[in-house]
Fold these 2 entries.
Entry 1:
Amino acid sequence: MFQDSYMLTALVAGTGIALACGLVGYFLVLRAQVFTGDALSHVAFTGALAALAFGIDLRVGLFAGCVLVAVLFGALGRRGRADDVVIGNVFAWILGLGVFFMTLYTTNQSGSGDGGNQTVQVLFGSILGLSSSMAVTALAIGLAVSLVLLLIARPLLFATLDESVAAARGVPVRLLGYGFLVLIGVTAGEATQAVGSMLLLGLLAAPAGTALLLTDRPYLGLALSAGLAVADIWIGLLLTHLVPRAPTSFWIMTVAAVTYAAAVAYSRSARAKRRAPDKPADPAESATSKEAAA
């Protein structure tokens, strides 16, 4: 597996992307803004197709579209925090633009036969097709996003758990909201190249949801979410090496979904055990207790 240069490139890029998705996704789930991640995944698709339609670098459309729309969400929302009504209206408009740019691009590229391939790559990602320079860029962006998020983690957590009290204590709630939305946009733009816009939400939500099921401690949850996201990428790449006929994105999302399902089962089992009444170990002791009560 490690003798293949494309696999090493995928591991480097995937590690940076997974770290960013795990950390950003934790706050995304904690702040009940998963719909924002879903919308930005489609914004990534629309931005990439717009860039391709106008003949410019695909990454320009990815990052510009995701960051600008993320800021728009914050501007239209309350205290820099997008609400579902705003996201729903912008979402519908973005989907319409996506269809328009896809039609424009595939029509212009119909003679070359490359239009469909590029569209599929934007939708489902191509982590094994990244160049070494793109992998290093992905790692650098992922580490930068992770570092910024860790620097603002404490006030962001305060603003997330009790927004009103945080604002009264002087925490810049609106500025933090805008900053967090920009981080989501950057993460979405970078991660789309690896797992695609259709599967981006899974990498943002599944590791974070799993971490929140396993622990109530926020910093441990952050670490667990990031670790699970990296594990999803690594195990997905390993499974791709073992079963190459299935796409890498499928394996990554499968690992994430199975892990989340296992966490749900474990969480429910633990709650059931806590709610169950204590049972005496010795039947004779139980009978003695009943006689004494009578």
Entry 2:
Amino acid sequence: MRIDIVSIFPEYFAPLDVSLLGKARAAGILDIEVHQLRDWTTDRHRTVDDTPYGGGPGMVMKPEPWGRALDAVLAAGREAGPAAPVPRLVVPTPSGRPFTQVHAQRLAAEPWLLFACGRYEGIDARVVEDARQRMPVDELSIGDYVLAGGESAALVIIEAVSRLLPGVLGNADSVVDDSFAAGPMSALLEGPVYTKPASWREHEVPAVLLSGDHGAVARWRRDQALLRTAANRPELLAGRGPDDLDRRDLEVLDSVRVPGTVQDVAD
């Protein structure tokens, strides 16, 4: 996968050279280029922002350097002969759609991603409007809070996407058991995990995990996933009933009375 990133703080992306992502880059699985937005300014101060039309606090990122930057990255990518004629532009912004594992899976299927990292009050809206005429665009939010810029959000999205690529994880089965992964544990948080030693500071690993009974282990893990989801993210269970929860699932949830679930509404 090719990934281009445009930012006024390229140094922010040093973490892309470490851990799994660093290994993926070294192995050629990821081809990542980080670009300095100021390289496409034309004044001696390398200005990338100005006051907002209509008044208000803060500054807005100017369309001219952004337009030239996206044009240049698009042209360079085409010259390099990427697998796709255009990238998918990803704009991290608190006003975007919530980023989920479903988005990560969809983005992982793309051969080329281009990240536009805004700062200040954001990027002039005409930049995205213009980009939509040339490439698909996703405006994504990683949570209901505001950051100083899009760089840390881009790192989150890139890591979530990259770990889904073949060859990035040492054990490909790890993706299957992720929280929010598709399958029988879909939209459930992952339960607690343990490793050796079996006893540590008088805390014992649950006996079922040492039993060798794979069916019992699978059931325990699902029970724990249900309990953790009920405690930390009950909205993920809202509306669930017999069509997607078995009798044991309902018994587990009944023990904690999750508001909004089918068995709670029925009462």
